[in-house]
């Protein structure tokens, strides 16, 4: 029997030895200087002595040839990462390496040998001894006097483990999404003596107010038994969670990507099919937490766990995010990233007075026990549900209406909301309201319909006329028709004389008027009166058919693409399909032999440049209205028209003003008509000095963000009524630099000296200045979209404090030039 037991024990020992030899890990124990690991399919790691943790390259699920340099559990089938390197750009390619170098650093390099990240030493690394993956999950670099030069526990990511502490200066940051390891929008940190959870502003990294307070103290202690406490400076501990049987379970505490701080457990001796289970979570209902805080103190805590235009519903400890009817997720792989409207508001849906055109094309979808606590712009009481629907239906700006679920007596309050919607919550136990979402009917057209009354009136009138004609004698009909024909002939002839022979031929393909060169030459009196000149050609004043007004602006293009008529007609068709109140309308064109001309509506008040930099300063309110109008026009070009258009030359000379000083963007869509420039995303430099985005000079593709940059420069000009270059003021030569200097030094009033209206509205001045600085960031990714810019200008989105817009390299070049 003893022999049998010995044989059995020996067999297990041999088997264990074989498994250790075959396991995808390097020898356990200390890691000596010069050792390295490679990102490949072998998945070699430096293991802890108890084999529970491994340091090395971990493949990212769903992303071929992408790896993380990370620490993870080595004995758990469910892949679990507890720390990873290079938080700003954590994904590395196959063939990347990490090396423990002689100076005491871990250095991560890409396959070409370029350094991506290195560990930060807390002490001098000249006397380095070794590195080690400890049994606690802490990877350490140790000096010869046995002190830790660096340790992963002091540089946490989203997770802490037993035996780890979080001090006042430390913090946890969530992932961006479940499989996206870049830094997300949630933090766990100490703030003013309290351990809080908060969102951060993704533009600046600055925190919002905490949405959950876990307790007061100075450090978080996760002891070896798996219990979590908050420690005070006097040495006392307050328990947050008391675990049981640590010898039987693994424990970890993670700030999840959706904003919940969760203590998880996993059995050390699994029977199969286990997964991490929740032991405790903070907060337990994140959706209601944001709703309650919003109702009490306003929107100081971020946009909620589900993003814009979405609904958050509690599902145990984890929020469940859905989109309302008529909306879908911005990213189907990330349900927490917000929703977009499936059929964005079309200008053709709205009449000039703001009412909805074709109300019968829309219907309402109801979502009970739901509320969006913000975005109110219209509130009326008393109201019935029918009145609430009718008001929202007829109001073009209304996206949803909120009506109390339990009030049926007609004395309820109706809340009308516009986009974007945020902090949406659905909870049967706490929310007593119904969301009425206005959506386009499945079979409805977005085109402006003929109203039923108008159609019936026309039909009745036609029947009446036919009856009269059939009921009279043939002689009377003959003379009547002859008289009518004579009158119309005389009127038509007179109109033709007034138009100097300008015909009204319509191109069915482009839905625009087609003119011959002779027509336009006659209409402009031989191109006699020049009213503008730019990169695309010269503009002349002319006369037009009465359906478009008395005057037109005729642009004679100097350069155009060499692909002939097809290229020209294609681009003209795109321009002709753009309709927005903040865009100059294209009426017609000429495409005859070598002649290419465009006919636009005439703008009575000329360009913004003349208006802004003239003798008299425009009023502050006019400038605000103009800035908002330009932003809306660019938003339409970038996101809402049938084909995205990048303008490439936004400047005051290309902003025109109509008779009511409404700003309208001109020359949009013309970039592709320039000779030798067949795409708007190539790097041949377009634009005007002072307004050109830096990426034009970097030999990199450009995007709509070049227009955002130009808008930011022009917004500064609108604020200050000063030109962006050659500004005669103190030591400043470039307006963007001077404006940021005034902002950073708290001298905002200096930007609007002698402008009493602006000085009396200095809060608005500061808001516009921050928007402009965001727009002129040298890094395109930091610039907001024009839709966000529009929302900022309207006050729908809070404007965070912007960073310095100039990259270090640019500033160095500037300093060098100054010194030279």
TrEMBL record:
Return the protein name: Receptor-like serine/threonine-protein kinase
PROSITE patterns recorded: BULB_LECTIN, PROTEIN_KINASE_ATP, PROTEIN_KINASE_DOM, PROTEIN_KINASE_ST
- What is the protein's membrane topology class? Single-pass type I membrane protein
Q: Which family does the entry's similarity section mention? A: Belongs to the protein kinase superfamily. Ser/Thr protein kinase family.
A GO molecular function assigned to this protein is: ATP binding
Catalysed reactions, as listed in the record: L-threonyl-[protein] + ATP = O-phospho-L-threonyl-[protein] + ADP + H(+); L-seryl-[protein] + ATP = O-phospho-L-seryl-[protein] + ADP + H(+)
Position of the signal peptide:
1-27
List keywords of the entry alphabetically.
Answer: ATP-binding, Disulfide bond, EGF-like domain, Glycoprotein, Kinase, Lectin, Membrane, Nucleotide-binding, Receptor, Serine/threonine-protein kinase, Signal, Transferase, Transmembrane, Transmembrane helix
Q: What residue intervals traverse the membrane?
A: 462-492
Q: So which domain of life are we looking at?
A: Eukaryota
**Pfam families hit by this protein:** B_lectin, Pkinase
Q: CDD domains, alphabetically?
A: B_lectin (cd00028), STKc_IRAK (cd14066)
Q: Which residues form the Bulb-type lectin domain?
A: 28-154
Name the residues that bind ATP: 556
Q: What is its main location?
A: membrane
């Amino acid at each position: 029997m003893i022999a049998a037991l010995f044989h059995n024990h020996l067999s297990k020992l041999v088997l264990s030895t074989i498994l250790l030899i075959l396991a995808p890990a390097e020898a356990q124990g200390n890691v000596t200087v010069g050792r390295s690991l490679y990102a490949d399919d072998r998945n070699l790691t430096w293991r802890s002595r108890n084999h529970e943790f491994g340091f090395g390259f971990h493949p990212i699920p769903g992303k071929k040839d992408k790896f993380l340099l990370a620490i993870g559990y080595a004995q758990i089938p469910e892949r679990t990462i507890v720390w990873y390197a290079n938080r700003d750009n954590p994904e590395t390619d196959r063939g990347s390496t990490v090396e423990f170098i002689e100076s005491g650093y871990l250095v991560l390099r890409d396959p070409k040998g370029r350094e991506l990240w290195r560990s930060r030493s807390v002490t001098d690394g000249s006397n380095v001894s070794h590195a080690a993956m400890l049994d606690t999950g802490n990877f350490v670099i140790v000096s010869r006097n046995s002190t830790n030069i660096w340790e992963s526990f002091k540089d946490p990511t989203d997770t802490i483990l037993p035996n780890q502490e979080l001090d006042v200066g430390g913090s946890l940051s969530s992932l961006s999404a479940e499989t996206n390891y870049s830094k997300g929008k949630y933090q766990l940190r100490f703030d003013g003596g309290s351990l809080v959870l908060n969102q951060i502003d993704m533009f600046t990294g600055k925190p919002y107010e905490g949405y959950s307070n876990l307790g007061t103290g100075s450090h978080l202690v996760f002891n070896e038994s798996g219990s979590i406490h908050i420690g005070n400076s006097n040495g006392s501990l307050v328990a947050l969670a008391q675990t049981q049987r640590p010898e039987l379970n693994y424990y970890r505490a993670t700030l999840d990507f959706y904003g919940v701080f969760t203590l998880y457990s996993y059995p050390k001796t699994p029977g199969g099919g286990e997964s991490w289970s929740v032991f405790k979570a903070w907060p337990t209902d994140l959706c209601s937490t944001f709703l309650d805080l919003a109702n009490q103190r306003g929107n100081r805590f971020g946009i909620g766990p589900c993003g814009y235009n979405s609904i958050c519903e509690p599902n145990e400890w984890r929020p469940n995010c859905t989109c309302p009817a008529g909306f879908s997720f911005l990213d189907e792989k990330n349900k927490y990233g917000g929703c977009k409207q499936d059929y964005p508001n079309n200008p053709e849906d709205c009449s000039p007075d703001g009412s909805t055109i074709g109300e019968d094309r829309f219907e309402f979808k109801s979502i009970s026990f739901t509320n969006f606590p913000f975005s109110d712009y219209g509130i009326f009481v008393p109201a019935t549900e029918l009145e609430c629907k009718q008001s929202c239906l007829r109001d073009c700006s209304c996206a949803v209406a909120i009506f109390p679920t339990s009030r049926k007596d007609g004395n309820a309050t109706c809340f009308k909301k516009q986009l974007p919607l945020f902090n949406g919550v659905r909870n049967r136990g706490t929310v007593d309201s119904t969301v009425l979402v206005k959506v386009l009917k499945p079979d409805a057209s977005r085109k402006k319909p003929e109203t039923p009354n108008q159609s019936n009136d026309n039909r009745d009138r036609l029947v009446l006329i036919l009856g009269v004609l059939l009921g009279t004698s043939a002689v009377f009909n003959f003379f009547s028709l002859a008289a009518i024909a004579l009158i119309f002939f005389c009127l038509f002839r007179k109109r033709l004389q007034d138009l100097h022979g300008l015909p009204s031929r319509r191109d069915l393909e482009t839905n625009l008027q087609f003119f011959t060169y002779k027509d336009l030459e006659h209409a402009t009196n031989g191109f006699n009166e020049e009213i503008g000149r730019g990169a695309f050609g010269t503009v002349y004043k002319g006369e037009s058919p009465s359906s478009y007004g008395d005057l037109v602006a005729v642009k004679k293009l100097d350069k155009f693409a060499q692909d002939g008529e097809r290229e020209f007609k294609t681009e003209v068709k795109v321009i002709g399909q753009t309709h927005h109140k903040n865009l100059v309308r294209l009426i017609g064109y000429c495409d005859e032999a070598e002649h290419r001309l465009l006919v636009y509506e005439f703008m009575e008040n000329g360009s913004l440049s003349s208006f802004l930099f003239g003798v008299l300063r425009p009023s502050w309110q006019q400038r605000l209205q103009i800035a908002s109008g330009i932003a809306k026009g660019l938003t339409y070009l970038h996101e809402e028209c049938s084909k995205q258009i990048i303008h490439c030359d936004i400047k005051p000379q290309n902003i025109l003003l109509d008779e009511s000083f409404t700003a309208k963007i001109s020359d949009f869509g013309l970039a592709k008509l320039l000779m030798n420039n067949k795409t708007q995303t190539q790097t041949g430099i377009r634009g005007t000095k002072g307004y050109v985005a830096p990426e034009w000079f970097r030999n990199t593709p450009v995007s709509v963000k070049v227009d955002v940059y130009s808008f930011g420069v022009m917004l500064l000009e609108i604020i200050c009524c000063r030109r962006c270059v050659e500004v005669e003021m103190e030591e400043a030569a470039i307006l963007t630099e001077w404006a940021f200097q005034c902002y950073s030094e708290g001298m905002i009033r200096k930007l609007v000296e002698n402008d009493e209206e602006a000085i009396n509205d200095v809060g608005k001045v500061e808001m516009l200045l921050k928007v402009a600085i965001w727009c002129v960031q040298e890094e395109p990714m930091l610039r907001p979209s024009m839709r966000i810019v529009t929302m900022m200008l309207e006050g729908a989105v809070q404007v965070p404090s912007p960073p310095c817009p100039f990259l270090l390299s640019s500033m160095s070049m500037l300093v060098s030039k100054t010194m030279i």
